[in-house]
Amino acid sequence: MAKIRIVHYINQFFAGIGGEEKADIKPEVREGAVGPGMAIQAGFGGEAEIVATVICGDSYFGENIEAAKEEVLQMIKGYSPDLFIAGPAFNAGRYGVACGTITEAVQNELNVPALTGMYIENPGADMYKKAVYVVETKNSAAGMKDAVAKMVPLAKKLLSGEEIGAPSEEGYIERGIRKNYFTEKRGSQRAVDMLVKKLKGEEFTTEYPMPDFDRVDPNPAVKDLSKAKIALVTSGGIVPKGNPDHIESSSASKYGKYDIDGVFDLTSESHETAHGGFDPVYCNEDSDRVLPVDVLRDLEKEGRIGELHRYFYSTTGNGTAVGSSKKFAEEFSKELIADGVDAVILTST
Amino acid sequence: MVKEIERAGIPVVHICTVVPISLTVGANRIVPAIAIPHPLGNPSLDKAEEKALRRKIVEKSLVALETEVTEQTVFDK
To answer: What are phi and psi of A2, to 5 degrees?
Structure first.
């Protein structure tokens, strides 16, 4: 039997081309397996071959999603794959979005079985888990072996058209699909069993998880900005030069609060970024490119806004846990309210 | 963070490059930015042009704060 033809998608980092300074490279294709593709191919034990690897820079993809998707799709199509695999992207946000976007396009536009893998908190997982199979991985590349061990069996099932089991059995992230099946016990009995377990304080698994819609309604608009106090917040990691609080370049455990009283312009001498998830050159030259203090000072002088709040808050939104950033913002929002701040401009890289 | 600030009762505008991520996170007022390493700048422009570009984005974000919205809104005009 001929070997299964796989096309694999990875970013510039996993291709060994470079880190953030190369994140703007355009899509390119290489014959054969590259980087993590070796482990994936090995996982198939000779049944499959990665015929080509498509590589694209994460920033290029993130900044040109529609165009990049088309380019990558054409490259994939050229190799007529039997199966398409993207990533795994672990907790890399832009990479996750790229993997999800392409996996969906291959599945729906080329009608080729496709799957990807990522950490549950990757924004790409939330965006694409309903559309495609996203295998749940650990949050860093240290989980590659584990990811391959889950992705290969699922890929084989997709190829053979075999029935795909529940998310917990197959290792993919819940897609919100309900399926009818026959069970040994009838519903009333299962419900009572569950209730008894609940009453005893034991663990039980619901058969119908409630969807988690964590949405916050928009606040009313600011009536008169010329009297308003505006605060700046950023996930771009802007800190005073030298990073006095040692905010981590990724997976931040803290945020900083910095005084900009009398500061009219951020310069390469005064400020820099602690963020490890983008090329810091442009931001370190001029941090106004991430945190627009200079422009807001002008607008303050002209009376367009009442005043710029004396402090800005900053952390690095690079692989930082959702729980941590939630906690940071809960804390400093209380301070912002106590300080009479009327509105916030939050910038992200 | 954007959602927790909103939850605390403070109107907030999110200036960001990858709009789909902001939509997934749940920001309500969104202004698209230029590029990931320089959301509010463009190093290929001269200083004055670059500041004018930055000012345009910031002004857009102020308009977003002045605008009543009932659902997630991207201010891209």
So the answer is: -65, 150
Q: What is the pLDDT along chain A (349 residues), one digit of tens a residue?
A: 689 999 999 999 999 999 989 999 999 999 999 999 999 999 999 899 999 999 999 999 999 999 999 999 999 999 999 999 999 999 998 999 999 999 999 999 999 999 999 999 898 998 999 999 999 999 889 999 999 999 999 999 999 988 888 888 899 998 888 777 788 889 899 999 999 999 999 988 887 776 666 789 999 999 999 999 999 999 999 999 999 999 999 889 999 999 999 999 999 999 999 999 889 999 999 999 999 999 999 999 999 999 999 999 999 988 888 888 899 999 999 999 999 999 999 999 9
Measured between beta carbons, the chain A residues lying within 8 angstroms of B39 are 236, 289-290, 347-349
The amino acid that residue A254 corresponds to is K
3-state class (DSSP) for residue A318: coil
Handedness of CA A173, A139, B18, B27 (dihedral sign): positive
ipTM over 0.95: yes
Token pair in block for residue A38: 């070796």
Alpha helices in chain A (DSSP H): 36-43, 58-63, 65-77, 93-109, 123-128, 144-160, 167-170, 187-200, 281-285, 293-301, 322-338
Taking an 8 Å cut-off on Cβ atoms, the answer to whether B7 and A127 are in contact is no
Say if the Cβ atoms of A337 and B2 lie within 8 Å. no
Say which CATH topology domain A4-170 has.
Rossmann fold (3.40.50)
* Closest partner CB to A299 (pick from B3, B58, B67): B58
Residues of chain A with CATH 3.40.50.2300: 4-170
Chain A residues in contact with B22 by the CB 8 A cut-off are: 348
Backbone angles phi, psi at A90, to 5 degrees: 50, -125
Determine whether the interchain pair B15/A65 forms a contact, defined as Cβ–Cβ distance below 8 Å: no
Distance from CA of B32 to the nearest CA of A (A): 10
Pairing of strands B29-32, A311-314: unpaired
Residue A142 C-alpha, separation from nearest chain B C-alpha, in angstroms: 25
Nearest CB neighbour to B12, from listed A279, A295, A344: A344
DSSP state at residue A219: P
Burial class (CB in 10 A: 0-12, 13-18, 19+), A133: buried
CB contact under 8 A, A221 and B28: no
Q: Taking CA atoms, what residue in B is nearest to A295?
A: B55
Return d(Cα A55, Cα A73) in angstroms, integer. 12
Which residue of chain A has the CA closest to B31?
A347
